[in-house]
Specification:
Layout: H1 24-37, E1 45-51, E2 57-63, E3 66-68, E4 71-77, H2 81-88, E5 91-98, E6 103-113, H3 116-125, H4 128-136, H5 145-159, E7 169-183, E8 191-197, E9 203-207
Antiparallel strand pairs: 1-2, 1-5, 3-4, 4-7, 5-6, 6-7, 7-8, 8-9
Helix pairs in contact: 4-5
The structure holds flavin mononucleotide.
Length: about 210
């Protein structure tokens, strides 16, 4: 069997200008609630695409830990590859794929750091193993398993069960400049509604050809 013959019709939903929310945040919140209700696996998982200073892109999944009119928040190691790329070049893109609903959401914008108090609060809420891991893992650097396990043991011995938040670990917020909501439709005539932020801070809705 050739994988070229694998195909699926998308027909579960529609997305129309007349019923879409005027604000993309409200539209996102509606779709997010529907993803939760549909028990979409890992509904907060989003692909984060960044690029280095020369324009070379890279993408990975991170978990969305909050969203509102200000933007979309995730937590990571600020010295990781993504952290270094964001420091060089703050434009980035997020992508949610909610397969059971035949939906994708693309978001583009500029990333900045969340307030340190917010990073502290979220760090404190994490299980101890994850808090220790944030210290032990020089994320995106080469490592051996022995070194990693030794580092975990060293951090446990140093901080016990109350490690402080490492300075190199914290939250980022992508502030959206544009959204695209994609709803799969029959015969590949998908719905694609876009929202662009205007100079006045409002949102202008449009439709793209599928
Ligand atoms: C389901 C899933 C959730 C993930 N969540 C996070 C996350 O919230 N933060 C994070 O730093 N990495 C997360 N990762 C790991 C990243 O995809 C990636 O491997 C790591 O952040 C290093 O990326 P970088 O080298 O591009 O910086 C997750 C991976 C998966 C598959």
């Amino acid at each position: 069997m050739s994988i070229a013959s694998l195909r699926q019709e998308y027909e579960k939903n529609v997305l129309l200008e007349g019923t879409a929310k005027a604000s993309p945040i409200d539209q996102f919140a509606l779709w997010f609630d529907e993803a939760l209700a549909a028990k979409v696996p890992e509904p907060t998982a989003m692909t984060l695409a960044t690029a280095d200073a020369s324009g070379r892109p890279s993408a990975r999944i991170v978990l969305c830990k909050g969203f509102d009119a200000e933007g979309f928040v995730f937590y990571t190691n600020t010295l990781s590859r993504k952290g270094r790329e964001i420091a060089d070049q703050p434009w980035a893109s997020l992508l949610f794929f909610w397969q059971p609903l035949e939906r994708q959401v693309r978001i583009e914008g500029v990333i900045d750091h969340v307030a340190p108090e917010d990073s502290d609060a979220y760090y404190k809420s994490r299980p101890l193993g994850a808090r220790i891991g944030a210290w032990a893992s020089a994320q995106s650097q080469p490592v051996t398993l022995d070194t990693l396990h030794a580092k975990v043991a060293e951090i446990q011995a140093r901080y016990g069960d109350d490690p402080p938040r490492p300075e190199h670990w914290g939250g980022y917020r992508l502030r959206p400049a544009s959204f695209e909501f994609w709803q799969g439709r029959r015969s590949r005539l998908h719905d694609r509604l876009t929202y662009q932020r205007t100079d006045q801070g409002a949102w202008a809705m449009g439709r793209l050809s599928p």
